Amino acid sequence: MFKLGFGQDVGIDLGTATVIVYVKGRGIVLREPSVVAVDKNTGDVLAVGQEARRMLGRTPGNIIATRPLREGVISDYTVTEKMLKYFINKVCGKFVFAPRIMICIPSQVTEVEKKAVIDAATQAGARKVYLIEEPIAAAIGAGIDIAKPCGNMVVDIGGGTTDIAVISLGGSVVSTSLKVAGDKFDEYIIKYIKKKHNMAIGERTAEDLKVSVGCVYPKIQDSEMDIRGRDLVTGLPKTVTIHSSEMLEALIEPAMMIVDAVHGVLEKTPPELAADISDKGIYMTGGGCLVDGLDKLLQEKTGINVMIAQDTVSCVALGTGKALDNLDALENKGKK
Fold this sequence. Notes:
CATH topology of the largest domain: Nucleotidyltransferase, domain 5
Distance between the termini: 38 Å
Order of helices and strands: EEEEEHEEEHEHEHEEEHEHEEHHEHEHH
């Protein structure tokens, strides 16, 4: 079955929470959770993506449902390679020529971490692997013209990392990457529920809470949600109603870490670029920026207008896709 022709170009947003794949000429073709279920005894992959996510916290002893990426980098090399192979095959079918692949990485990764990504993609069937920094891909995906000599600030909040960068003339001038993002919000929710309600909940329940009633800025109207978990005193299941005002208490600490990091980057920004940013505002991308009120909090603390990009979750993948169009130019430049 030959789905596609020769030498495909594929862009992958290899996220801690979600993998999004963009194929040149077709747009975004796949969006799946980066979760893999593996049989512990044989090492076989049983399920990948959505199917594996349903198994999180619900597997018998011999099956492990894991996330092979933690805090924006590969924590389990073998499983990441198998996951990439699965997604590439799903998207490209049987390819005549191996695809060229461009993968997003956080802005502050080490050389070793970069090599792990390149090796995993090569083993998964890529002909050639290119890397692009997440904030730059996010800026391109948000429709910002990064080639001009003026400053643009992008805050990309993903699942594992938050990347903050000031971009000018196609490169990042000042950037930072911190390991506080969507997953960290979930952790804080789990800790808060344990402390306040004496109840243990899983990652999925924490994520549902964050999406439904989570907020980091006082809401006009308090919303609520019922959750079930295990009572830590009796050991029995119990149901509790959680209000958004409680979520504000739980999430304000990690949200302020992101605000402080933005502040730190602004302090290091050259004055001319800082002036551009105060004119144009700060762009927020990534699924993590959808936590209610994060844009208002950042705007209040910095005094700069904050805009959430249109398709926040897909911004990085779309930017990678647009960067694929310049691959041939990159290659020719290299040959010269």
